[in-house]
Amino acid sequence: MSDTPDTPDTSDTSQPGQADWLARARQLSTAEISDALDYFRLPGSALGIQHIAGQPQVFGPAFTVAFVPVDLATPGTVGDFLDDIPQGAVAVLDNAGRVDCTVWGGIMSRLAAHRGVGGTVIHGVCRDTAEADAAGYPLYARGRFMRTGKDRVQVRAVEQPVSLGDVRVASGDFIVADPDGVVVVPQARAQEVFERALRTRDVEDQILGAALEGMALRDARRQFGYHTLQRAGH
């Protein structure tokens, strides 16, 4: 584990305009962000990971954890990393997509909610979802299954790059989730991706407004450049 976590301080306003675009980005949907990622030809839409329990909204920097099958000679821990997750960060757990054992349960959900963790996203499964619902704690995963990961998997690395399916996640990348799924925005590209998504939202609002006032949808789309919104270079 790194001595200096690579998660960004989202409260920092030292960069001109940062507070504005970051605050506005929190209003974006995963669909809007996915379109912006397409514009820059960036991967980021985590296929197969869906809302399981708790509040259906997540926005924050990733705190990454990778799991491997347990070493029977020297077994390791499954959940002690919770003590190291900063407030507001999102736990991103890579259990290689396994659905036969969980890496997150009720005690974790209740403590994470109490400590202000932003949510948990798992390339794998979780359990004790009723406790996450009771705490209002956001859980996203491939599914739910009751069998423990204890003595089946163990933590291999913390704050190192992991995978959510075919999407790479580094510690500090932005994780955004809503009822449509999960997207990952690389930390180094966050401002341009979010600002592109905000620009697209504004154009789509103009299209909708014009159509509601009686303009034909095809004409409104043509007037405001709808068909170029996801094309880089326009």
TrEMBL record:
Coiled coil: none annotated. Gene3D superfamilies: Ribonuclease E inhibitor RraA/RraA-like. Its cofactor is a divalent metal cation. CDD domains: RraA_family. This is Putative 4-hydroxy-4-methyl-2-oxoglutarate aldolase. InterPro entries: RraA/RraA-like, RraA/RraA-like_sf. Pfam families: RraA-like (PF03737).
